[in-house]
Amino acid sequence: MTMSHGRVSVSWVSFNNDPYSREKDGHYRLLDKQREAGPTLEFLLNEESPVWERIDKHYLLVRRQRTLEAGGRDFHPSEVEVAEALMKEIKAQGGPEVEPVYWDTDEAPTNHQALFRFTAPALAEIRRRHPKAQIVVNLSPGTPAAQTVMLLALQARILGDNVLAYQGIPRMHRQAGQVLEEVSWNLLAELGRRDDSHAVDETWNIAKARTPSLRKVAELVKRYGSVPFPVLIIGNRGSGKTHIAESLRGRYLDWQMKTKKDWHLHLNCAEFRGDLTMLRSSLFGYVRGAHSMASADSVGLLEQANGDCVFLDEIHWMDLQVQGMLLLALQRKGSFRQIGGKDSIHANFRLIAATNKSRSALREVLAPDFLDRISELIIELPDLRDCRDDLEDIWKSVVYRACGELAQLDPGRAVGKYGAKTSLARDYVDQFRPHQYRITGALRSMRLDGNYRDLERLARRLLVGGLQTGRLLSIDSELVNLELDTLRREELLDGEHSADSPVTLEDELPTISRCSSYLRKARDKDESLSGPALVEVWERRLLVAAQKVAGSGTKAAELLRMNPRTFNAKVKDIQQR
After folding, report:
1. pLDDT tens digit string along 78-101?
2. Where are the beta strands (DSSP E) in 66-179?
3. Which terminus of the chain is more solvent-facing, meaning fewer CB atoms within 10 Å of its CB: N or C?
4. Distance (Å, rounded) from C-alpha 437 to C-alpha 477?
5. What are phi and psi of 272, to 5 degrees?
């Protein structure tokens, strides 16, 4: 049953310290004639706890032995009795609702494997009950083995990502207002994090989005990141398809608890237009002698991507035969043969594809079965001009990357005021700061047809202009105005060119897929469309436009490569209707 609690918490019961610290015989320890609150009471009820009065429900994991052991305690000799005393105390002090989750077992509380077999499904059930709640885990109670297993379960994403973890601070080490400290439970991510004291945290990513359309993309990245199914990313040029692919891959490896490494498993299908052999070979690999270029065995991209993601950009350029081969590999869960090979190879790869074509246009160039398979999960990216709320942060990130790239590739180009080479990027970024609002204000008024690439082009031009007079970077208002005006002129010229001849008239006609969509709707409504009438409308528009442009029937007929008599007859027929 799904519940609506906004924030729930979880912990083991502490046999020796709940609800209060105990002596060896089980009786409560007194300090200055006062009982000392145990970790669960400190967590839930201490006013200095960061979760105090913010927990709606607490789940208490309790080991309930099937066979009672004879111990040395004469007061609350079992964990169940300790848990009952704890729940009674929490209720008496006005704490949240507590539900015990019992582990019926005779296994030792130090058996890691047995602990995990109980803990993992127990936590999964809690998440199922509270799919949208933030879950706060108290790591302090329980045996050291139980604490370790709880941390492992968090790393394994049993509770997902909307999780906080805390541990108690020993009283002798507490400072004013400190009872608990937050624990960074994503240990693998910590391993991959660089310790750079000179780094400036100005990088933007989709998780920081403010614009609703980008927030939707961020939610889809989060949702799709943990599953192995193919994802198709659709977006105009420069709209960030590669960034989204990298984000998906990062979450995928994170869920698999794998350390992220540099990602080189990319292929742009446009590179292989008309070269079927090279595309097949790059994807599937080949054995020696398979074709004229196969002087030795070669491992393909899919095999290299075993346990990882492979990114195929501009998927609309993929040859039909290769589409069939890749579809077969997907249907066989990663099994395929190298070109010229006899034995099957299995690679557990995840496919991420990208295109700048619309869904209807893809129906014209990709095989239906292949398109259906790679588009089970789709992420459509908005244009940058529709993401005004994020434009300033995105511009900062573009500047940061451009400055870092220049400092890394050509560290001798300029001298930084901080002296060390690692500080050059900071020095460059500082030169952009005074112009931040003017630049982003101007960008908001532009079409930005190139999306992120327009921003990257502007940032690099400002860098080049600021370095042209010497070795020190200097960006002034005159340079900013010059480059912004240049970008505006380029947009104007591109817009005029686009308006003059965006595509051929043939391309302006609706695609087969678009026609099919209209006809399907008509069929479902038991309606029909007049095909001759539609053709007649297009012909009339074409003839009228030609006469308007040419000025006379004879010249219009020449423009359309028609017989003048035929042209004039058709125009006369149109005028008489």
Report:
1. 999 999 999 999 999 999 999 999
2. 97-105, 134-138, 163-168
3. N
4. 12
5. -115, 20
